Amino acid sequence: MTNTVLSPIQIGRYQLPNRVIMAPLTRMRATMPGNIPNQLNATYYAQRASAGFILSEAAPISPMAHGYYATPGIHNAQQVDGWKLVTSAVHDAGGKIFCQLWHVGRQSHPDLLPGGALPVAPSALSPLGQAPTAKGMRDRVAARALETNEIPGIVEEYRAAAKNALDAGFDGVEVHAANGYLLEQFLSDGANLRTDQYGGSIENRSRLTLEAVDAVLAVWGRDRVGIRLSPSNTFGNIAHSNRWAQYSHVVAELNKRQLAYIHLVEPRVDGSADKAESADDIALSRFRPLITGDTKIIVAGGHTLQTANQSIADGVGDAVAFGRLFISNPDLPARFAVNAELTPYNRNTFYGGNERGYTDYPFLNQSPAKAAS
Q1: On the CB side of 219, how many CA atoms lie within 13 Å of its CA?
Q2: Residue 335: what are its φ and ψ, rounded to 5°?
Q3: Active-site position among 45, 68, 158, 181
Q4: Cβ(26)–Cβ(66) below 8 Å
Q5: Distances in whole angstroms, Cα of residue 211 to Cα of each of 149, 155, 207, 285, 294
């Protein structure tokens, strides 16, 4: 099969050299205290600048948006300065990088929030599971339901974070509405039990996501904005009574806005883990007829070179985001070009730590020892 994933593509305002997108990957290596990006982060991203473009790890949009220890925020001047190290390094290496804007909602823990506050969510429910804090893994707690008059403030946080990303030198932004975090919590009728204008009907549950997107569009314009959705996700105790009705509505509304792209997560991935197929899963091919005009589709989730090329050939996606393979193969497009053996990744070094398992993976024709030196 032709290596279509290595062919050029126009996404939004950018002509990209290939369709190999670096997926957003939480790595928990920001400088603490402060959740500030640092030079090690800059080195990591610059190493991967040969991607069509890079999606940054998810960046919390406010102090209340954090849900994992040592994740780089995008809500104050120190963080913006830290991100400038990253964007400059990527640009110097010839790449492009988008900032993924993130609010975890109920997936957080009081140990990660100002003054030990309760996490916020559409409804006062717990997502179960544990949150990684400075004190280790802690059981999540029931969230506090946002008051209706607080929600415009959340939208404003998305707008302010989008402006910060612009100031930090990013090439675009992606709104994170996937993987069980705040915006998906509002989309889910299992997580959203509200009776105001942000709950109840499909249209109401979609309202916050669309308002956040519109706030970001007001800063960046449609040709530099994308969104990530995970239509089959159950991570974070997310449930839907009718997934297709909910997500087909959201995608149709997003299509009216003609974003640069819509980023869809495959059913076989749940959060950051693989999962078995379910009767509730939505094949991503179902979304193609809903997405028209210049908006491109990026697909993500456990792809190989072969499945990526097949997805493009079948018309499911226009580009493919790779996560774990980009962690351990910083020059992934070059390896794809010659069908080189891929370096296996080490899950034990995914989250937290130093350069080990972060910036010490070898490039093509480079020994691991030399890469680590």
Answers
A1: 25
A2: -70, -40
A3: 181
A4: no
A5: 14, 7, 6, 26, 21
Q: Is 358 a residue of the active site?
A: no
> Which residue is it, tokens 């351990």?
328
What class does CATH assign to 4-372? alpha beta
With contact defined as beta carbons under 8 Å apart, do 173 and 96 qualify?
A: no
Q: Is 25 exposed, middle or buried (0-12, 13-18, 19+ CB in 10 A)?
A: buried
Chain position carrying tokens 């290595």: 6
What are the domain boundaries of the chain?
4-372
pLDDT in tens, 122-138: 999 989 999 999 999 99
CB proximity list for 162: less than 8 A, separation 6 or greater: 101, 173, 215, 216, 219, 220
3-state secondary structure 197-261: CCCCCHHHHHHHHHHHHHHHHHHHCHHHEEEEECCCCCCCCCCCCCHHHHHHHHHHHHHHHCCCE
| pLDDT single digits (tens) 196-223 | 999 999 999 999 999 999 999 999 999 9
d(C-alpha 27, C-alpha 70), whole Å: 8
Contacts of 152 (CB under 8 A, 6+ apart): none
